[in-house]
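Preliminary data (for renewal application), S-adenosylmethionine complex.
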Amino acid sequence: MKIDYKETTNDLLTRIDIHNKYGGKDIDSWMQDILKLQPGIKILDVACGGGKQCVSFHQYLKGNCAITGGDVNQELLAQAALENEKLGNPFTLLPLDFDKPFPFEDNTFDLVSCCFAIYSSDIPFTIREIHRVLKPGGRIFTTGPMPDNKKVFYDIIKEATGKPIPPMPGSSRYSSEIYGAIKDTFASVDTEIFENPLTFSQTAPFIAYTRASLAEDRRLWTSLFADSAEFEQVMQQIFRVADEWQKRDGSLVMTKVVGGFIGTK
Ligand SMILES: C[S@@+](CC[C@H](N)C(=O)[O-])C[C@H]1O[C@@H](n2cnc3c(N)ncnc32)[C@H](O)[C@@H]1O
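Predicted structure:
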């Protein structure tokens, strides 16, 4: 059965917008504080999406760097190209599939970032490719959800549907399999934690976030709904529970718990 949902780009941009509006902290500032990038470096952003991290690196280094962004999704690359144009086209943007060999020579980059995306089918392969294209002493930087991430979001969905949350590739693999692959491949790894409470004093933006999450990850949530009509029913059930919790507690606080792994080659 064909399931007709919103576009991935809209869903990703909706979630980024909600993080910005309802989160108390700025993840880009956290990223720049822990990375302390030096001017003149070469950066590859793997799974760059709409270009969020490319723009942040460019602004932090005041353009004194060479940034390449790659993604498998043409629509998101087109979005990144719009951001690139606004800045005078400082980025090189290209199609890149992290399940395939990267189109770069060994020892090319000082930093390879991969934010909220490193869920390839063969994690050790992707990590080895990142390691290969990094210069000696170069760094990998990844971000992803830690086990306590968005507890309220999952608890509301569990109560609303009476069903278990299907395994999420991010939460269930990031701090275990992905951390392990980086540790096995790189000379050293540091872990930094970013906690960002998103406070919703109304139910509507929480529902918008939930809609954009479940729709984007729709293949992961098929144990909860099989088609768009069932998706809408599930969203109504979630709304009822979220609204009850919001009225009971005065607000819904969904805390993002993000792990930043920095590995050095
Ligand atoms: C949650 S988005 C994160 C995008 C961006 N890093 C950000 O934080 O805004 C996940 C990204 O992974 C990309 N992606 C998924 N599979 C991929 C693959 N096989 N190779 C490269 N990128 C992929 C998606 O297209 C999407 O841009």
